[in-house]
Amino acid sequence: EAQVTQNPRYLITVTGKKLTVTCSQNMNHEYMSWYRQDPGLGLRQIYYSMNVEATDKGDVPEGYKVSRKEKRNFPLILESPSPNQTSLYFCASSLVVPTGGHSPLHFGNGTRLTVT
Amino acid sequence: GQNIDQPTEMTATEGAIVQINCTYQTSGFNGLFWYQQHAGEAPTFLSYNVLDGLEEKGRFSSFLSRSKGYSYLLLKELQMKDSASYLCAGAAGNKLTFGGGTRVLVKP
């Protein structure tokens, strides 16, 4: 089944403890992206990747890192999480840049992160 | 940059029609998407408009007016399962910007 898989679904951690949220897609998509979703603010892009070894900042990159060593994987790393990073996170992928109707985004099921 | 505006919440009755409006201000606009998101789930793609006019897909239709910077999503013959958030997203260059989403509550 074609899908985007992210883990874990739920994560509670403490301030400053490094964590990684994994994301993997099995559709051979070139484009991958991370979003955070907060009430009233919608989906905001954190980082995106146009292809392997090509990553770029989105609208809210501060406090996050990503890597794209393989086409299928795009982990999100929080080196020193803080409470303002408590949010719902979505990984998404698309065939190419998702700005055309032939390449809509496919989203993972989300990771609800709480930082205390 | 882009600015995408849509209402926060709408309520409608089962079997009725609801229209969700979305306005955008953007330079280099090259298309508008609608996604559906049920509570606690991932967004899923509904429609894409790049040309002016109405695109119909079963009970759902999406309209775009590029000159007015305006789109709407029309949901007909509402069903309880249509209760969800509907996200408008504008495409410009390599960037996709989402609005805050409109939560639609369908009542019996």
Task: Please tell me about this protein's structure.
- The complex is a heterodimer of chains A (116) and B (108).
- The model of chain A has no long low-confidence stretch (mean pLDDT 95).
- Helices cover 0% and strands 49% of the residues of chain A.
- Chain A has 116 residues and is mostly beta strands.
- In chain A, strands 2, 4, 5, 6, 9, 10 and 11 form a seven-stranded mixed β-sheet that branches. A four-stranded antiparallel β-sheet of chain A has the order 1-3-8-7, with no helix packed on it.
- Chain A is built from no helices and eleven strands.
- The N and C termini of chain A lie far apart (36 Å).
- Chain B has 108 residues and is mainly beta.
- Chain B contains no helices and eleven strands.
- In chain B, the strands form two sheets. In chain B, strands 2, 4, 5, 9, 10 and 11 form a six-stranded mixed β-sheet that branches. In chain B, strands 1-3-8-7-6 form a five-stranded antiparallel β-sheet, with no helix packed on it.
- Chains A and B meet through strand 5 and strand 10 of A and strand 4, strand 5, strand 9 and strand 10 of B.
What form of chain B results from the Cα inertia axes? globular
- Oligomeric assembly: heterodimer
Query: What is the average per-residue confidence, as pLDDT of chain B, rounded to a whole number?
Result: 93
State the total count of DSSP E strands of chain B.
11
Structural class of chain B, by secondary structure, is mainly beta
The end-to-end span of chain A amounts to: 36 Å
Strand content of chain B: over 45%
- How much helicity do the residues of chain B have? under 10%
Q: Give Rg of chain A in angstroms.
A: 13 Å
On the 0-100 scale, what is the average pLDDT of chain A? 95
Strand content of chain A: over 45%
The structure class of chain A reads mainly beta
Gyration radius from CA atoms of chain B, angstroms: 13 Å
Kindly state the number of beta strands of chain A.
Answer: 11
Span of the ends, CA to CA of chain B = 41 Å
